[in-house]
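Reply to thread "Modeling small-molecule complexes from scratch"

Following up on the discussion above, here's a worked example others can learn from. I took a protein sequence and the SMILES for flavin-adenine dinucleotide and predicted the complex. Inputs first:
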Amino acid sequence: MSETLDILILGAGLVGSSLACALEGRGYRCALIEASPASAAPPGFDERKLALAAASLSALQALQVLPGLATSPFPIRRLHVSRAGDFGAVRLAAADYGRKAFGGVVLARELGTALESRMAALRDTRMIRPARVVALRTTDDAIEVDIEGVGTLRSRLLVAADGTRSFARQALGIGTQEHDYGQTLVVCSVACERAPDGTAYERFTSQGPVAMLPMGAHYGGICGVAREDAARVLALDDAGFADYLQQRFGWRAGRVVRVGKRSAYPIVRVLADRLTAPRAVLMGNAAQTIHPIGAQGFNLGLRDALTLAECLSEKQDPGSEAALARYVAKRGEDRERTLAFSDGLARLSANDSGAMRLLRSIGLSLLGNIPDLASPVVAGAMGYRGDVPALARGGA
Ligand SMILES: Cc1cc2nc3c(=O)[nH]c(=O)nc-3n(C[C@H](O)[C@H](O)[C@H](O)COP(=O)(O)OP(=O)(O)OC[C@H]3O[C@@H](n4cnc5c(N)ncnc54)[C@H](O)[C@@H]3O)c2cc1C
């Protein structure tokens, strides 16, 4: 333990890796620790389809990550939000807001590969992998972490980006509020009779949400299934699942012709009671794991990372109380509003009471018909909420 690092990032998932890119050139000596073996991608770099807000695309461009994508993001030019049984539908077009697109869709695996290739060129961050943190201690001026089979590292700030079941969060004594939505999301590629035209569909049903994201010639399909029904749905053969999806999503894109390999994700919400502890900060899924229904999880975690990098750009002690307090203050509004938005969508869409249905229908109709009412929602969905980090403002 000869040196003291400035910033030690725990977890090289999408958020920890983005933070390493955002810290480059700010004058800090950083290390990024990842438990998974170098021969395999970190667990979050998988087949899930990510809708990235316009603000996130601007930031990933500024961080020199987007050019490394094997496939450019598929633009979301229109949003169509509806609910089975309700008469309203929201139809929003980016062009009505003077934009080419609300955001774009990428495959998490390809975004992960682009982040890895950008990280290979970073001078300020050293990657330590495979390495699992198994203990940590805080002193007045640093935090020490024990890495299995490697030894102990000392840093002035620890960033816990180690995911939903964060070891660091627990070791720092930060509790959580948890809610199990009782849903499993089934994700796969879907080919429909009508090829995508840039419209992203979100359909709420009492069994859970269904989203179809435009991805070139096919859709990225995401289908929420009640947990008790998940095993049955996952066991369906392709033709059976195509029929099931058709019945859940309807005919907006014509007949479901083909479905790809399916992956399943049980959905829970896990919110940390606080974002910091002495010399430590939580971000990404370690700070808040939310329902993917509003496509906000990584978008929000990326803004965590950008904000921290911007809070630390003045070359002061990165783990000082003042720096951490500044970070918490800057994240407050965006975090609160994004959590409320995602949880509200998840709960509202699941509530089938008559009054709720009526409110929802009226709400959807109003949103669809009065552009001014929709614009705060649109701005939020595009990633412009609260104190927007400068790197995300590129296209705002
Ligand atoms: C089906 C689905 C669809 C989604 N769609 C969207 C979307 O459209 N838009 C959007 O913005 N978000 C979306 N999300 C959310 C998004 O995927 C997550 O918010 C994001 O991947 C979280 O990244 P993370 O880096 O915080 O955490 P993780 O990906 O969990 O990364 C944590 C990393 O820490 C490492 N680690 C853990 N413990 C240790 C340890 N002790 N020592 C060392 N390393 C450790 C792990 O190996 C892992 O690599 C979706 C999620 C799902 C499940």
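What I'd highlight from this example: Residues 4-70+108-177+269-350+387-392 form a domain with the FAD/NAD(P)-binding domain fold (CATH 3.50.50.60). The pocket of flavin-adenine dinucleotide is lined by residues 10-16, 33-36, 42-44, 48, 50-51, 132-133, 161-163, 167, 185, 187, 265, 284-285, 292, 295-299, 301 (CB under 6 Å). Questions welcome below.
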